[in-house]
Amino acid sequence: MDNAYLQQTFGLDGRTALITGSARGIGFAIARALGKAGARVVINDLRPQACAEAVASLGQEGIEARAICFDVSDEAAVQAGERELAQAGWHVDILINNAGNQNRKPLVEMSSAEWQQIMSVHVNGTFHCTRAFLPGMAARGFGRIVSTASVSGQATMPLIAAYSSAKAAMAAFMRAVAIEHGAQGITANAIAPGIVHTDFTVGLQQREGFEDYLRQAVPAGRWAYPEDIAPTVLFLVSPAASFINGQTLAIDGGMLARL
Ligand SMILES: NC(=O)c1ccc[n+]([C@@H]2O[C@H](COP(=O)([O-])OP(=O)(O)OC[C@H]3O[C@@H](n4cnc5c(N)ncnc54)[C@H](O)[C@@H]3O)[C@@H](O)[C@H]2O)c1
User: Fold this and answer.
1) Among 172, 168, 101, CA closest to 130
2) Backbone dihedral region of 62: left (phi > 0), alpha (psi from -120 to 50 degrees) or beta?
3) Please, which of 12, 17, 18, 51 could form a disulfide with 67 given CB 3.0 to 4.6 Å?
4) What are the residues facing 94 on neighbouring strands?
5) What is the pLDDT of residue 94?
6) Exposure string over 43-55, b if 16+ CB within 10 A, otherwise e
7) Residue at 92 is within a domain
8) Residue 68: Cβ within 10 Å count
9) What is the pTM of this model?
């Protein structure tokens, strides 16, 4: 294996990456993958203790990491986080909009406030973080933004109307960033994971018959795990993907390909 070629094509030395919602699950796996490829990583999540534990765990693997705790739906808190990082000399080159929440219920039982809770994290959060970190990327002439959308932004199932709508909006927003900022060295793409075995899907993991459904609906015949998702994000933020812009890439074991 030619290590110099791999380093040049996929390496992230000298880059700083912020991953929202990364104290656990898919976000943590992404932080670990980008860190292993040479980036300094910023862990973001809601609880300081959870962020600190994630930073410590990455540190044990030799990854330079720090925490910045904010709620992505709170624009002032996101802006304060951006200032704090910049003052510490951590200028974010790579932003992964990954924080997410869920509320499964029939759409006619969903209140406007519950709808907003989903939109405010996925859609507003993605806007707030992009809005805060994009100007620095544009000024430096380099930026990578990846948003964790979902297969449910493209096809859906009952009880997740708000979530599906939010995920479709995140992918559309990445296309908007791509066309407005592509000339400044910035790429913006989305990933669309299938059904991933994390705390997010505990309800599905406990649902009677769900494993049978997975075997029938997913050509790969199994759950995805965070480690199935993270390398695709590494690819999208690496030099290898510098000409990929405005795309949504499904990582779903073939789920969306099935009629
Ligand atoms: N698990 C799946 O099947 C699946 C499939 C497709 C997409 N996704 C998406 O992947 C992303 C990560 O999900 P996961 O499965 O790792 O779930 P997870 O619940 O394990 O992780 C989500 C993290 O986001 C944090 N978070 C929630 N709201 C936040 C906010 N307002 N500000 C900052 N952090 C916040 C949570 O505290 C948590 O640590 C989400 O956007 C989710 O919608 C998950």
Assistant:
1) 172
2) left
3) 51
4) 17, 144
5) 99
6) bbbeeeebbbbbb
7) yes
8) 22
9) 0.99
Q: How far does residue 163's CA lie from ligand 1's centre (Å)?
A: 12
Domain count, the chain: 1
- Which residues are paired to 40 by β-bridges? 16
**What are the φ/ψ torsions at residue 46 (nearest 5 degrees)?**
-85, -35
Residue nearest to atom 2 of ligand 1 (CA): 196
pLDDT of 66 strictly over 90: yes
| CATH number assigned to the domain comprising residue 190 | 3.40.50.720
Catalytic site includes residue 163:
yes
Q: Assess if residue 257 is contained within a domain.
A: no
Does residue 259 have a pLDDT over 90?
no
| pLDDT (0 to 100) of residue 38 | 98
Bridge partners of 251, per DSSP, are: 193
Find tokens 């919602």 and name the residue. Answer: 21
242 located within any domain = yes
146 pLDDT exceeds 90? yes
User: Which domain covers residue 238, as residue numbers?
Assistant: 12-250
Report the chain's mean pLDDT, rounded to a whole number.
98
Q: Which atom of ligand 1 is the closest one to the Cα of 50?
A: 39
Give every CB contact of residue 225 below 8 A, 6+ residues apart in sequence: 196, 197
